[in-house]
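Weekly modeling sync, notes
Attendees: S.R. (lead), two postdocs, one rotation student

Agenda item 3: backlog of single-chain predictions. S.R. asked that every request posted to the team notebook include the full sequence so nobody has to chase files. The rotation student volunteered to paste the first one in as an example of the format we agreed on. Action items at the bottom.

Example entry:
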Amino acid sequence: MRRLSLFLIALALASFVAPAHAQRGQADLSDAEVEQVRDSAYIANDRVTVFIKLIDVRVKALEDLYARPRRPGREQDTHDLFEQLAALADELNDNLDDYGPRHRDLRKSLPKLVEATERWATVSRTPPENTIYSLSRRIALESIQDLNDAAKQLIDEQKAWFATHPVEKEDKYTEESQPH
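Predicted structure, as returned to the notebook:
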């Protein structure tokens, strides 16, 4: 009976741990970063800005790896950072694909995104060639380029859309405006 109880407890604990680990994508977001992404879910400009910051952190880490003397494991760390860059860029691109047809106003954040993608691509090309991370770098660069292309296209689409559909003053969500 005691073995059965221990087995059931272990099974119950495993059922909670496995999904939590599976939910972490290749981007390996910290808990604070996950909260930032969740908090920005309702305002498209904020969401884009949060993703820019998240990718900037990884790009800065990549720069730091090669600004210091070489240490063991640098190539694997570079590989991991490139995978995280690609995953975050792909996720942001998916968000842009969702925002575009819905005509979410991204006119403030898109120019910043275009500038950031150019910076990320430049930094991603700086580490010397190495077979350990060459594939992940190529995938990250393709994801960054796709993101750059999508942002530029969306800028053009938004200019055309908002020229023909002026934005009216929107009431911000406040507690006072909601019925009690």
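Discussion: group reviewed the output briefly. The CA atoms of residues 45 and 108 lie 7 Å apart.
Action items: rotation student to repeat for the remaining queue; S.R. to check formatting next week.
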